[in-house]
Amino acid sequence: MTRILLSGCNGKMGQAITACVDARDDCEIVAGVDISGEMRSRYPVFQSFADVTCEADVIIDFSHPSVLADMLAYAKETGLPTVISTTGFSDAQVSEIKDAAKALAIFFSFNMSLGINLLVELAKKAAAVLGDTFDIEIVEAHHSLKLDAPSGTAIMLADGIQEALSDSYSYVYNRHDRREQRPKKEIGMHSIRGGTIVGEHEVIFAGRDEIVTLSHSARSKTVFAAGAVNAGVFLKGKAPGLYNMQNLVESK
User: Model pTM greater than 0.85?
Assistant: First the structure.
């Protein structure tokens, strides 16, 4: 049985993870951490990591970038493996996560969906085959409450494509202040925010007289919740290091 400490337990994703865990028999949530401190399920909720008194096997985080420093400090103090599913981190915070992985087992992914991670691999393959003869654009859409743009998943897709193209491309987030033809070596990223869209990602390879499009559509938050819980169960007892969805898939 994997005992989970859930960070951001009262948020929408926290509640989705709670429902996911309730349907399983290989894990349980022993406590939550949420700034509200409100108890919305059967487990106790603490307002900060400094207040936590329960023992756990792993932390699953779906909260806010501002929580990162306190969470990593607690994880280092307790030696708890940590699944980080929050998005919107700065480059400096991503460096903090990678540094913490020298002492802790950390599972870090911008998207916990198996389908999205497959999309990344397909985009990398397409980029390697099509090379610089096709222009590359990424379009993502999310609900109106999402704070960061472009999404972490869009960045993950772009990073995967960059890897396939030997890091020779630049990222462009808007073109409204430019009056020039599109340079070849750039990846355009476009964000749509509206309504209750869960998550839509599309990678467009536009060539001469033909277009190749790869896409993924998330219909509910359950796909991300299930991925995060699977990552938590997988991470229990793992040696220090930085893990991702590919490690989880390969373990099956």
Answer: no
The string of pLDDT tens digits covering residues 139-191 is 999 999 998 899 989 999 999 999 999 888 999 998 888 888 999 899 999 99
> Catalytic positions, please?
142, 146
Task: Check: CB of residue 142 under 8 Å from CB of residue 196.
Answer: no
Our CA angle for 240, 90, 49, nearest 5°, is 55
- The CA distance from 167 to 158, in Å, is 10
Q: What is the mean pLDDT of the chain?
A: 93
